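ENTRY TYPE: paired fold submission
RECORD: A
CONTENT: sequence, then structure tokens
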Amino acid sequence: MAAAADEVASAEQAAREGTSKAGATNRALTQAPISMLMAESGAERDTAAAAASSTASRARAEEAKLSRARAEEAEEAAAKAAAAVARAEQASRQITVRAGYFGSLKEMLSLAGREVVPVAGDGNCGFYAFLGCEDAIEHCRGRTRAPTARDYAAQQNLREECVKWLQDRPQLTAWHAGMDAVSNSRRQSSWSDAAIKNLEGGKQSTSDSMGVYANEAALRAMAGLRKEPLVVVDSKAGPSLSKQVRNRPPDQVAVYETHAGPEDKRRWFASVMKWMSWANDIAPVLQRRLEGNQLEDDPKYRVIVHNGEPASSRGGHFDATRVVV
């Protein structure tokens, strides 16, 4: 009996221990998913925060990109507006010159970004003006008001070069001398042998008398020597001109050619000079060169200014031009 009681007690104890272990196991199994869930919940929060931060960064980047695009659009719109204004101003100027004149020489030259550079009026002015365009005359640079010894020498060298250039082209000079004789438009043709030789008579010192003026033949020779078409703007500023036309330069300008001339004598005149529009032909070429956008076949024009006095007038005068600085 005692043994049976002991066995029953042992069985009950084992049952209690089994129940306790099972409870511990159940509690462990119950608590494990909660910890895992807590861990998973923290990781999700980190992932969500990272995603939110990434989204915010992308939004800021998109906003910055959109701001840059808007700024570029604004700049492009401003550039287009400025170009439209420039075109309108150009069209306005061209409409103005359809009447044949500009309001002033400054307005006319501004189309090409140029200004007048005064030279001494001692009979050498045409040669000074031509050389002044290439900054080869000292009194054009503002260092002195009067020609220097170097200026006198430079213009004299140019005179002699012009005479030689003309004498080396007897067909050209003979043809135009003959045309002048037929038309009787000049007292003495600038193309005669005597007139050409006379071009060597420059003023070479302050004590010398006035130099011989640059004439049509001299201007043609200068263009040929430098191989640069020579544009002569008529400022209409001559003292003998009427008030109706004074200081109203015409759009039409004389352009002296660079080549020696075709063999066909019927075309000799075309080899000397031609009339062109400043606003439509000359200024756009000069402006492109100034902006660095010149075309391959754009001529390299050299521009000087004459005051519009008749060829026979002692009041005639040339000046140089330069890019506005």
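RECORD: B
CONTENT: sequence, then structure tokens
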Amino acid sequence: MTGLPNGSPSEHTTGSVYSALERHGVSGEITDAVMALGRGLVRRATRGIRREWREFAALIDLRSGEVVGPLLSGALEEVDIALQLEAAAGREVISLHTHLQSSSFSPRDVQVFLTHPAIRVLVVLGVDAQWYLMSAQPQGGKDRALAFEIERRFEAEVHRTAGVYRALRSQGLFTKAQAWREQAHEAWARIGADLGLRYDRVKPSGRSTARR
């Protein structure tokens, strides 16, 4: 495991969801469509919290801005996007889904991204208005073989920082949910570039933390 060559996971900033999307190869006019779709998914997820906890997912065409396939909903911590992926055959798409705990990608999210060529950009939307974005580095492309490594690498990084986040919780600096959001973000920030993946987090204030 290599460390960050330039410092901490929060060192690089871009400034907004718009600029973060551009870093991941999304053009200006498509960015507007992605923003509108993402906000709509968060509204659905937020309304649903009052009745039942479920994730929502959608695909959008990277070139045309057209929504691809059906909008789907799932359970508390998962949503099956198989129908969307069928509709995405032969396209390049951006995949968006909500996380009710407002945390970063799960290893399963990244495995789906790596094993489906149609998905060019992966976006997770927190109900607290945080955005997380992932794409392949331009020079490397997506390596399907990495899908089998992702969970092991992620769990190893989480294990490495477990003591730090336990201490922060015991000091009252983080709740359990807050600690997990930061721990998962730190894990992807540290291993993403090492695996040829570009990763960003944009906070509600508009500030984006990134790793190239």
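NOTES ON RECORD B: DSSP finds six helices and eight strands in the chain. The first strand starts at residue 12 and ends at 13.
STATUS: closed
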